[in-house]
Amino acid sequence: MAIKAWFTEENDQDKRLPHHCNPQEFVSPHHLADIGVLYWHLNPKNYENDEELLKIRQDRGYNYMDMLDLCPEKVENYEQKLRNFYTEHIHANEEIRYCLKGNGYFDVRDKDDRWIRIWIRPGDLIILPAGIYHRFTLDTSNYIKLMRLFLGEPVWTAHNRPQDNHPSRREYIKNFTSKVGVGSPLEAH
Asked: Quick check: 60 pLDDT over 50?
């Protein structure tokens, strides 16, 4: 199963809807890789013994892991958390998320500052590079269970836009937005 991603339209509709442009404009895994977003599809039913997940973690140095069940029944201040996640921001480190159950959307900015909506479903593992402007929301199912992976101790600090002088943003600009064809979807699948 391939990742589904598309350009979005900004409007006042429920943020949990797909927000396709009219006409719809889908985005390829190669385009995502060009802006630094990597993707794998794994078996979410076997995450505890998945050799491919173990290899990704070892190869990329992800030595810390936790789980997040995101739904109204399990998260204190649920609505406020979702508003925070949906505020456009960057992180100083990669954001690594593996969807085990449910669905959600990661929106990322491309080189032309257009929003790309990435629909993550069970089995989808994505890596957002440090410094990429992004946001997150659930879809209309209102539920997702995510594995969060980190290099070292977890850091959840979000730096809300504008952050063009933040070191991770400057590094991102240098590595991904000034070059064409950077990254390879062959590294991931």
From this structure: yes
**Cβ–Cβ < 8 Å for 124, 3:** yes
How far, in Å, CA of 121 to CA of 4, rounded? 9
Residue 41 has pLDDT above 80, yes or no: yes
pLDDT of residue 1: 66
89 labelled ligand-binding: yes
Task: Give the torsion through C-alpha atoms of 72, 78, 84, 85, to 10 deg.
Answer: -20
Residue 37 has pLDDT above 50, yes or no: yes
The reply, when asked if residue 134 is annotated as ligand binding, is: yes
Considering only residues 94 and 185, tell me which one the structure prediction assigns the higher pLDDT.
94
**CATH number 3.40.50.1100 given to 4-177:** no
**Which residues are paired to 89 by β-bridges?**
134, 160
Q: What is the mean pLDDT of residues 84-112?
A: 97
Q: Are 97 and 148 in contact (CB under 8 A)?
A: yes
The helix/strand/coil state of 141 is coil
- Opening angle at CA 110, ends 137 and 138, nearest 5: 10
pTM, two decimal places = 0.91
Tell me if 30 is assigned to a ligand binding site. Answer: no
Which residues, 6 or more positions from 93, have their beta carbon under 8 angstroms from its beta carbon?
130, 150, 151, 155, 168
Nearest to 112 by CA among 126, 133, 90, 139: 133
Q: Give the residues across from 69 on adjacent strands.
A: 145
